[in-house]
Amino acid sequence: MDAPQRPLAGSLSNRLAALALLVFSLIYGYAGSGIEYAFSSDPLGPRVFPVLLAAILALLSLIYLFVPGRSEAWPQGMVLMRCIALPALVLIAALLFEPIGFAGAMFVMTAGVGRIFGASWRASLIGGLVQAALWYLVFGYLLDVYLPVGELFAASRRG
Amino acid sequence: MTLDYLWTGFSVALSWQNLLIGLVGCFLGTIIGALPAIGPINGIALLLPIAYTLGLPPESTMILLAAIYTGSEYGGRISSILLNVPGDAGAVMTALDGNPLARQGRAGEALMISGLSSFVGGIIGVVGLTLFAPFLASLAIGFGPAEYFVLMVFAFATLGSMVGSQPVKTLIGCVLGLMLATVGLDPTSGAYRFTFDSPELGDGIDFVVLVIGLFSISEAMLMLESHATGTSIVGKVGRTFVRWKDVVFTTGATLRGSIIGFVVGVLPGTGASVASAVSYTLEKRVSDRDGTFGKGDMRGLASPEAANNSCAAGAFVPMLTLGVPGSGTTAVMLGALMLYNIQPGPQLFAERPEIVGGLIASLYIGNVLLLLLNIPFVGIFSRLLLLPNWILVPGILVLSVVGVYSTHASVEAVLLMLGIGCMGWLLRKLGFDMAPIILGFVLGKVMEVNLRNALAISGGELSILFQSHISIILWVLAAFVAVGPWALQRWSRRRAARV
Fold this sequence. Notes:
The complex is a heterodimer of chains A (159) and B (499). Chain A has 159 residues and is mainly alpha-helical. Chain A contains 5 helices and 2 strands; from the N terminus they run E-H-H-E-H-H-H. Chain A folds into 2 domains: 8-72; 77-158, no CATH class. Chain B is mainly alpha-helical and 499 residues long. In chain B, helix 4 packs antiparallel against helix 12 (298-314) and helix 6 (107-140) runs antiparallel to helix 16. The interface between A and B is large, with 77 and 71 residues. Chain B: InterPro entries: DUF112_TM.
């Protein structure tokens, strides 16, 4: 998506990205040239297309390296902390998904993400509770999607 | 040329179940379009796995996704006009004249006129699709593997020269997408490629995981930054009415925008952002004699709105007839069809008329429903702009996690989605567009298979790629779109220097 209003940064990060892509193309090409196969019904086989792509990517990354172009400014300070916190919260929710179940994991995620988007503690906790309950009802009952209840609860129910 | 498929389509689309699905899609689409910062591609990415998990038949899924697509092209104008924050790239141009109108207290009129021009654009686009698609499909029957391969080269060439301002990054995105598509079992030789002996990667990278990672997780992270830097002020809608004078005043702009939108839509890979930009620029050149464009000219509003809706319909032409998507959003829809093991192409019209016809018929019905939804209820949709991000973003994340988990029932898939999302965020910060990656991914397997089949036919002779008239024309076109704009720019610069 185009976002012309955002501030633009220097070319260092672009050059680093170009180098990373170049290294990636070499590794991908090397791995592609070593693909093992017993037979192939076509003259090209499974190796040629990946090697061709690697060559094209290597060429494009070289152009990118010398003509790095524009990119957006990187976040700093609190914004950077929030940018790390968001995927971290999704990670925590994913890891909690099966142990404590859908509703609990989604509560942690929605309340946490609400908080980093500027809601007060109270608003984010209430928002998290409401969203966890609402989505549980929508998916679990209305749309009948399979969702984990949580091993802890399942165990206590059995006990 | 026969339009029988369309009658089959109307009987599918008018069943009560599909009508309801279409209505829900139009409603959700308008909401998705109206919400700032999320657009059609994000909406479709989020709702695709849910439609798939619900076990909807392919034609109903297509009707739902198409309704969301067209609905969000309508809805996109609401946040552009009232907030000056385009909901998606296709609505950027709408803000240029729409927001000044809102500031002059004419938001209601602006929403009405843009709603009408969206409708006209949408209908002209669907009529074009109805007439042009079977024609292109009958042409494409003659395509062999070599022609298909060259067609995809042409698609990437168009993408590189028309999408985004940094062609190298667009092309790198395409190649990355093609590379991602090579992961997994190679069907012709039985070799496992780039799977690192992991059984999960044997079937390749899952489309749902990739799309949600790229379009939803990375979007949420970007929203975090814009949240920190700006606050939004919602303009008042005011009185909603249409003045006959304004309709007459904008008719030319709407019609021109519709035609440009359709043509740009048909070109592979170029979506609503290109269509609305081209039509706005042209309209400004044609009509702006008093310098009123950018200060609240109704024509500057009508033209890009007609274009982005017409483009949405046009983008289905290459997707349905050639299997090459006309925009990023249709690339996601192509991936959705592949989930059902359906490969679009010229045979689809004859073999699965219920899907093609149902989809096209639903676009007619959808545009009428959207006009009805968007004219009287625009005030209600505009209230959505008051929804704070601290409610919206957690909701998007819940949908993402549920979408991925429900199609795989595995936490590993959610973790892969998260990893892909973080990579997507890095790439977007560096100025890469996500649509070329998706386009490369959905075309990757087909492109390789066609290349290998072509060379199997010729016994390894590369000359087969340059033999038929169609291939030669496509090569020439590809070279023209790749080099044309650059040469034109140089030529006009040299001319300017001479004068």
